[in-house]
Design brief:
Elements: E1 4-10, H1 16-29, E2 38-42, E3 45-53, E4 62-70, E5 73-79, E6 82-83, E7 88-89, E8 108-112, E9 119-125, E10 133-139, E11 142-148, E12 169-175, E13 186-192, H2 212-218, E14 223-229, H3 237-241, H4 243-250, E15 262-264, E16 284-285, E17 301-306, E18 317-321, E19 325-332, E20 343-349
Length: 351
Amino acid sequence: MAVTKQTYTATATWTASQLAGIFRSAFIDAGLMTEWHDSFLSGSVENRVLRIIYDGTKTYGTTFYWFQFTTSGVSLQFATGWNTTTKVPTGTQWLDYITTTTNSADGWRFFNSSSASTAEVIRYTSGADSQQSWFVFKNGSLRKTFTIHHASSSLQSWLDLNKGIYLGFIHTDCTNGRVAIPGRYGVIGFLRGPSLRRDLIIGTGLRGSVDATEYLSESAKVGCLSYGAVGNQSNNFTYNVRVGFAWEDAFGALADDKFASTIILPCNFSGTNPAFTTNSNPVFHSMPTSAYTTSSLPSDFGLTFHYATNSFSVGDTFVVNTGTEEWEVLDFSANGSALTGASPLFLARVI
């Protein structure tokens, strides 16, 4: 099974409204909405609200994804309620929303962009599960790969939406170890977006805080799950096993004894396992990306770790069997060690 791919383009020099338009088209075609729940201009900021009803019978079963578009970037924050008359979120600040400012992009800046370069949103919708789509936002050499969980997503039964909100935004990030240590391993992580006090997952960790940075920038570094692979190099014990430490260091500079939960995947290379006399790059698929849903990544999205090159671009083709099994790169990190380092790739199957 292969994905359906479609590219939505805002040609330079685009406006904030045109940028919002390509997100609109991608979200509609992915089945996330039929139209924005709210759409308005405030100052120079184009405000758009995506409403997803995960369970309409629950107090907090509806999540509002508030996007703010400008010619210099896209910001995102969440709310438990939204007033389409007053054009602001409802409830209590910090619990249910971060700010009511609409004429300034005060949310989590998940992408800095420039209208001088063409902007694209590329939608990859699974052929195995049409309710799962991933998006790549590209502008010049910059990119952000993310998904938003569909209204029909199957959430874990222990998430009580009468007590708190579920935030279904996940973005990818790849790394190759600490800056100070030239590690040979690679990691691809699935991270959550910004948060609220009402967030069932990390809201309690924000109790008492009135610092928006903690809710937006810091919370967006919290991972759901991450996967790693060791380097293709003998006697590389320290570099190979400290993947969790490297992941923490890349996102928060935490102390050495603070380890992230990184699942190590098999490396089919003789440099790491002498049982392999023929090296290969397996594509791992059907992996869970979040502990909070019962669904895994569909079989036409996958992960691999490349050991033969460190030159990649979004849209590159990763060939398993020509004309039979081919994948496209959605996100990557290029390890500085082309032959011994594991470069993580997030893939969508196109053939």
